[in-house]
Automatic annotation (TrEMBL):
Organism whose genome encodes this protein: Kribbella albertanoniae
Record's keyword annotation contains Hydrolase: yes
Pfam families named in the record: Lactamase_B_2 (PF12706)
InterPro entries for this protein: Metallo-B-lactamas, RibonucZ/Hydroxyglut_hydro
Occurrences of domain Metallo-beta-lactamase (ranges): 20-218
GO molecular function per UniProt: 3'-tRNA processing endoribonuclease activity
Keywords per UniProt: Hydrolase
Name the record gives this protein: MBL fold metallo-hydrolase
Superkingdom, natural source: Bacteria
Length: 253
């Protein structure tokens, strides 16, 4: 058995040229889960796999660069499938999604007709086929869940979602096989309320958590080389790479 991660979208809220915002495909031999569904995600997914083969979708938070292509997936599923696709959202997600439908002057049950909408969070771990998801509320300006995804053999990855630095995340990510870490801020911003990671804070997490492998994601293309250099120099002995659209990674060994 193996667990793989395919990068479908690694842009932050400003899409990089020709690229999609947050979207990742998780696969085992019998389970396929879409993690995040930002702008442009479903076109990227359709280029790699049949969206109709998904077992479920998991969204970490309801910012558009993490969920807005649920509209496209809803339409794909409506055309190609007659059952409903399980959609796991953070605690505020069901009401936000219904609000989007109303704001677009669509029926309030526009999404419910196609998605089996459920919420999850730190108190509600979820299991989808062979994959178990545990979560931790991050430091972001909306409800957001970092997730730790494990297969039955113990292989696991941690996705930070969007967050500022906080100590509990270092414990949550400790020893993971693959840390998928958002790194949007090329420099450390002023002020105490930080909702994204910068190289200094990302390196602090990596050095504390000691993952086997790190992929930096959710970045501006223009600053990607610099953030990779800054984080790599601050984390000797840890393999750090950029998440690149289309690439697949085996999780663990
Ligand atoms: Zn966000």
């Amino acid at each position: 058995m193996s667990l793989s991660l395919q990068i479908l979208g690694a842009s932050c809220a400003v899409p990089n040229p020709g690229a999609a915002t947050s979207c990742y495909l998780l696969r085992t031999a019998t389970t396929t889960v879409l993690l995040e569904c930002g702008h442009g995600a479903i076109g990227k997914l359709a280029g790699q796999a049949d969206p109709g083969d998904l077992d479920a979708v998991v969204i970490t938070h309801m910012h558009p660069d993490h969920c807005m292509d649920l509209v496209a997936l809803r339409n794909y599923w409506f055309v190609h499938r007659s059952d409903r696709l399980p959609l796991h959202l953070p605690s505020n997600g069901p009401s936000v999604l219904r609000g989007i439908a109303v704001a677009l002057e669509l029926p309030a049950d526009y999404f419910d007709r196609v998605f089996d909408i459920r919420s999850y969070g730190p108190e509600q771990p979820l299991t989808i086929g062979q994959l178990r998801f545990e979560s931790l509320r991050t430091r972001h300006n909306t409800v957001a869940n970092a997730v730790r995804v494990s297969d039955p053999d113990g292989r696991n990855l941690v996705f930070s979602s969007d967050t500022g630095w906080f100590a509990e995340f270092e414990d949550f990510a400790r020893g993971t096989d693959l840390l998928l870490l958002e790194l949007t801020d090329a420099r450390t911003p002023d002020g105490p309320d930080r909702w994204h990671l910068c190289p200094r804070d990302g390196a602090r997490i990596i050095n504390a958590a000691q993952p086997s492998e790190v992929l930096l994601t959710h970045y501006f293309a223009a600053s990607a080389a610099q953030i990779l250099q800054d984080v790599s120099e601050a984390c000797p002995g840890v393999g750090v790479e950029l998440a690149v659209e289309g690439e697949s990674h085996h999780v663990g060994h």
